[in-house]
Amino acid sequence: MASKSKARTVIVRMVSSAKTGYFYTTQRLRIGPKLSAVKYDPRVKARVLFMETKK
Predict the structure, then answer these.
(1) Domain of residue 32, CATH code
(2) Are 55 and 25 spatial neighbours (Cβ–Cβ below 8 Å)?
(3) Is 35 domain-assigned?
(4) Each residue's pLDDT tens digit in the chain (55 positions)?
(5) pTM value?
(6) What is the b/e burial string over 9-48, where b = at least 16 CB atoms within 10 angstroms of the residue's CB?
(7) Domains of the chain: total
């Protein structure tokens, strides 16, 4: 049986740095760098930094 190839993309969880527990899920390339983005966190009603963690 042939081996199964890995997917080109991976699903990651972007967790709020405000420690509210709020997160976004998104896809990124498997070989790409770790993601970080400034997005809106409705629990603190402000834009905060979201950092990538594993799903």
Answers:
(1) 2.20.28.120
(2) yes
(3) yes
(4) 667 778 889 999 999 999 999 999 999 999 989 999 999 999 999 999 999 987 6
(5) 0.80
(6) eeebebbbeeeeebbeeeeeeeeeeeeeeeeebeeeeeeb
(7) 1
